[in-house]
Structure formats: C-alpha cells, structure tokens
Specification:
six-stranded mixed sheet, homodimer, 399 residues, globular, 8 strands, two-stranded antiparallel sheet, alpha/beta
C-alpha cells in the first residue's frame, strides 16, 4: 500500500498532525533523495494494560506504516524486570505479548500493511555487554544536571528521586543506535529527552537521529487520566455496552474546543482511522432528528461544536459507535485466538481484577510483596504500573 | 606464615593502625568463631603510575596477607576504558600489568606470603549482563541525593559533574558481591561510599560487608601531592641518588608531628615493613655524632621529634636510606625481568616522559586526542590520570 503513494505523499503523511519534528529535512533526504526505507522506533513500557488512550500513538504509527516506514516497537520490559517487586517477571513477559497482540490487531483493524512492523523486547539487547559499555560511556559525557533537565517533564523531581530516572533517558538515546533506526517517535513530553539524545550520541561516536513528536492529547475525561478511577479507561476488550456507558461519563464542556478530549479523540483517532480504512477521513454524528452530520475534517467539526451545532450529548454516542466499530475486529480476533485468550488471562490474572474474592489469596504467592496489599483493590497493581510507566519516561497519552 | 599466628593475633594484625572499621565484630566472627578464611578486596584505578604513596595501602595489605586474609586487588581498568580519549586502551592494559608487577614485588620485598593474593581486572566481569542488570537495579533503589552525598568527599561537586560520578559508588558496592568478598578496604575518604554500599546491597538481596579504613596520610611534601610537580613523587624505579635528592626537597616543620608526612611514612610504611621483614618494627636514625637512634615504635620517634632530639634534617636521610633498602629488591626484580621491562616501556612510552624530544611526534598516533597536547609536557598524561583516579573514587594516599 505504501508503495502506491509517491515519495512526496509518503513524507507528507509521516509529517501529518505532529506537533514538532527535529531535523525534518532528513526525512525528505532519506525518502525522496536517497529513496531508501526510513526506520523508526517507538517505545512502550509493558507493565500496565493498553487502553483506548494508546490509540493516539498507534494511529500515528499506522500512518507511518502506510507511508512505508519500517516501524520498530520497543516493548520495554527491562524497566519492569528491574523492579520485580512491583510487576513479577512472569507477568511482564506475558504483558509484553499482550501488548504485541493489541498493537498488531489494532493496526490490522485499520488495514495498514504490517510487513514492516517489528516488535523488539528491551531485554533482548539492553543487558548485552556492548550496550552496557556504551551506557557507562554515556554517563561519562552527560552531566547530572543535563540528564535531570531532560527528564524534568516526565519524571517527578522529588528529593528522593532514584538514580534510574537519570539513567533511563540515556538508555532511550542508546536504543536509537542499538535498534538501528533513523528516527524516534514519541509524545512532545519527550522533547527534552530527545534533545539530550541528539546532543549525547555524537559524543560517543554515534550519529544523532530524527525525532517526531505527537502533541499531548487530553483524555476523554478531561485532563489527566486517574489510575484510581479504573472505570475511566476504556479497555480494548470492553463490550459495546460498556464502551457506551463509559463514554456517557466522559467530561466535555459545551462549545469549548480547546483541551476537549472528545474532539481530540476524533481528530487523532477516529478521522485518521476512517482515512486509513476508507481512503478518506470519515466521522458521523447522528442528530436528534434528520440525517447524520458527516465530517471529513476536524475543522468543520470544531466549528460546529464551538457554535453548539453539536453538543457533548450528541458527540458522545457518535464517538461510542465509531469506537465500537473500531474495536469490533480487534475483539473478533481475540475471540478467535485461543493463544491470545490464554495470554490475556496469564498477563492479567483474576486477582488483579477481583481482589476482594476470597479465592485470590491462593494465588498470593505469585505476587511477592503484593500479598499484603490485595484487599486494597485493583488500584495496587495499576498504581504500580503507572509508576513504572513514568519511570520509563515513555510517551503515554491520556485517555 | 599466617598460620603461625593464632586466630586472635591474626584479628589484631588485621585491625592494627586502621582509622575505622565498620562491623569489626564480623572479623572476629569469621576468623575466630567460624575459623574460615576472610576474603577482602582493595581497588585501584590503573591509569597513572604507582609511586611511593602506594606503599601506605600496600603495607596494610601486606599485614592482611600475613594475617591469612585472601586478598583480591581489583585493577579497575573499566573506568579508563570508558574514557579512552584520556588513556588509550593499549596503555590501560599494560598499566594494569605494571601495577600487578609493582604490587607483587613490593609484597615479596616485605616477605609476606602471596599465595592468597589475587588480581582481578574490572573488565573481566563488570560488563557482564548479570553485573549490569544488578547495577541498573541499584539505580532504582538508590536516590540521586544519596549517591551524590556518598561521593562528596571524593568527587568534585561541580555544576557539570558527570553522571558517572553517581554510578561508580554503586559499582564499588556491587564489586563486593561479584568479587565474593567479606570485606572492602580503602582510605577513610571512602567512608560515605562504604556506608552507601552497606545500605544499598541488602536492598537488592545481597548481604552488607565489613569495611576497613586506613587514615588519610599526609604526603612527604606536606599536604596534597600535586600532579604538576612530578618531582615530588618518588617512583618505585628511582635509583638511590634520585630518592635521596627528592627526599631532601620534602617539606617538614621542625617539632610538629601533626600532619607530618615524614613521620606518617615511618609509621605506615617503614615500621610495618621492618616488622614484616625482621619480625619486629625497626627504624634507624643516624645522628651527626655517635650511635644511630633505633626506633621500634612510632610514639618514641614522635616524642623525640617533638622535643627536637631529631630534626627534619636528620630524619630525611634516615627515611631515604630505609626507602632505598625497601626499593632495592623491587628494582632488582625489575632488572632481572625482561617481561616487566618490556611491559614498563609499553605502559609508559617515552612520549610520556620526554615530550620535548622531537621524536615523540612519531608516536603521536598512539595517543588519540593527545597529539595536540604533547608539547605541554608530562603533566598532560599525569593530570588526565589524576582525573581518572578521582573518578574511580579509589582510595589514593598522598605521597
């Protein structure tokens, strides 16, 4: 499919809807001048459970694939291994698999080619001597001050901040070299880390890379997603009625476009998904009476929302239906794959979901250090996962 | 020889002349109660060139060996590898060998058994995956603040201090586990790093160790040895007349014992060397007239010095003669060993010594990044070595 686009169209698709690109001219150089494949990576920590917030970066990755980019997804298991008390090794391995299933089936659902999609486990190379030697080298050329500054938007600057928070940005730089990529993709919250990578890699003899940044997209519930409100996250496997119910609870101020999570979801997920599936952007809003309003660009929808032509109450069910449609093939794949089902139950064993059921105590031994916390409910695991995700400094969109 | 001492005598010899021991009761426990071998390590960065200042820790190590301790000398080459611009890899390897020759022959010169002496190159295990995994683990349980505090006496707290300064203390802790030792020995300037090791290792499931600390000994020239005064260092291979000449330039205030480098050298090197060689401490001072004064303990010598019975002018030649005697068997071994001679010329090629000789430019290519600096004289290499040694946070006595 990517080959049906001209080099110029591919470059335009790669650059579309991004907030910022560092060294964008190198994209043109590789694709138009050198006429070779662009190789890019996106990293994600495999500690939690992917939810609909992940659709934002994944839809952009879908566009990269459509544009013929070779895309490497780094499943960053090492960070979880390092803190085995919070996420036992068995779970982390299964979760990495689960992420792979989710990302792959979502990309298939929007019908982009996945022959240039690769998954790489961090542990497959990050413990190697050569990698570690380079990591130590980086510590000799990067100052505490600079590394701290790099992580300042992603890592909490607490008094007892752990050293790992200063090391992970260096690993994120080194991953660019060891994954053999031309570019790294992430949220704009990664900007300072990307800048550090650009400065630091040449100091140990490696070239600096292109960096592409998604904007920070507000969550469906306005502002930051809260781990203590598990209901607010829409799971990829939520059945249609649950999706509808959760979207009803979503928060959106009438007529306000700025910081509106519903509109952002249409812009960064639903319209691009329509474009990839049907060849053009498409989003339908059913009105109380008469024909549905059909949108093919976000500007028109934003105008209508600002002018109260569509209200939060009409927008929510429209998003719910589009999302249900997007999730349907993913859930169908899940229902048909015994392997994925088994993986899902191993990656997220019942104890995580129903901690108040007496039986879970029998499984307590699988969670060293967690046993005592089980009665606290599902937050325990989720809060831990959140922390780890923050530590990894990965770009995590809010739902 | 160690076996001729009772367990209690061995414990006393181990504890002798140290400034502080953390968990000293464990020494008694291992040697007297468990009646097993005590295993200890001392680390040294192999970037510079050992001089007589090294005699202070090495004489203490000689006592450990005499007391039956299994002694591991960590030749810390990794830190030099990491900064290859300053000390090319070929040199570092040869220098590690040179350190081994020097330390071994000094220990032989004071006639202690060396069957329990082991040399370990840092690079032989510090790049291994298991080690590196544990190092990353440590970064997740030690805060920036604590690691910075740990290095505060050894690493300069500059604004652009490199991250490596925060990582090396963790490596020094981990080395205890990977070298399989019961104890680490170092200067008292390492105290905060040792404390960090005691706190951090149990957090990743390893036991804390015993820590033995030498006092900081003033140099022969009073205060800190300066790298820009190469003359102030007495080299192990300096011929007798050079030793005498350098000692003549040594600085010592008459009647002042406190902070007196000459007296410290007698206390920590010459008297212990006498005890090891002759069975009892021995140091002779030739007076202008009459019989020489014979000292078998430092207190008497300190009294005589304070009361002006002996002056700096009589003490200096006495130290020179004792040092010449101590160096004689080392230099003899060097003269008889073609292997050591070849090693020495590879480890410290002429360019390091005589940078103003035109010929050295031909060898410029062996010093990447150093070429431009050659005309500056020998300081270039020495200053670089000093910096590396500081980075390693090793205990380095002043000469």
């Amino acid at each position: 499919m990517g080959s049906q686009l001209s080099p110029e169209e591919r470059v335009a698709l790669i650059k579309k809807n991004l907030q910022e690109i560092l060294q964008p001219e190198l994209i043109d150089d590789i694709i138009i001048k050198q006429q070779r494949e662009l190789v890019m990576y996106w990293g994600t920590a495999t500690t939690g459970r992917p939810h609909c917030g992940y659709f934002v970066p994944i839809l952009k990755i879908a566009e990269f694939l459509k544009a013929g980019v070779r895309m490497k997804i780094l499943l960053a298991d090492v960070h979880a291994f390092l803190d085995a008390m919070k996420a036992p090794i068995e779970l982390v391995e299964e979760r990495a698999k689960y992420y792979k299933f989710c990302i792959t089936s979502l990309l298939q659902a929007v019908q982009v080619p996945i022959d240039k999609l690769e998954f790489v486990l961090g542990s497959s190379y990050q413990y190697n001597s050569a990698y570690m030697r380079d990591l130590l080298k980086l510590t000799t050329v990067v100052s505490e001050h600079d590394s701290k500054k790099a992580g300042s938007e992603v890592v909490k600057q607490e008094k007892d901040a752990k050293l790992s928070g200063l090391i992970y940005p260096l690993m994120q730089a080194l991953d660019e070299e060891y994954l053999g990529v031309d570019a790294q993709f992430g949220g704009v919250d990664q900007r300072k880390i990307f800048t550090l990578a650009i400065e630091a890699l040449p100091r140990i003899g490696y070239r600096d890379r292109i960096h592409l940044m998604n904007p920070m997209v507000p969550g469906l519930h306005g502002g930051k997603m809260s781990a203590s409100e598990p209901d607010s996250k829409i799971d990829l496997l939520d059945p249609p009625d649950v999706v509808r119910k959760k979207l009803k609870k979503a928060y959106a101020e009438p007529k306000v476009v700025e910081g509106n999570g519903l509109i952002a979801f249409v812009k960064y997920v639903l319209l691009p998904a329509g474009a990839l599936k049907h060849g053009e952007p498409y989003f339908a809003v059913q009105q109380r009476e008469g024909e549905p309003l059909i949108y093919t660009d976000i500007e028109k929808l934003q105008d209508d929302y600002a002018n109260d032509v569509i209200s939060p109450q009409t927008l929510k069910p429209a998003i719910a239906e589009a999302l249900v449609e997007l999730l349907a093939p993913i859930q169908k794949t899940f229902q048909e794959s015994k392997e994925w089902q088994e993986n899902e139950s191993k990656a997220y064993p019942p104890a995580d979901k129903k901690p108040k059921v007496k039986k879970v105590r029998d499984k307590g031994s699988r969670y060293p250090g967690e046993k005592e916390k089980l009665p606290d409910g599902p937050e325990t695991d989720e809060v831990a996962a959140e922390k780890l995700e923050k530590m990894k400094l990965e770009s995590k969109p809010t739902e």
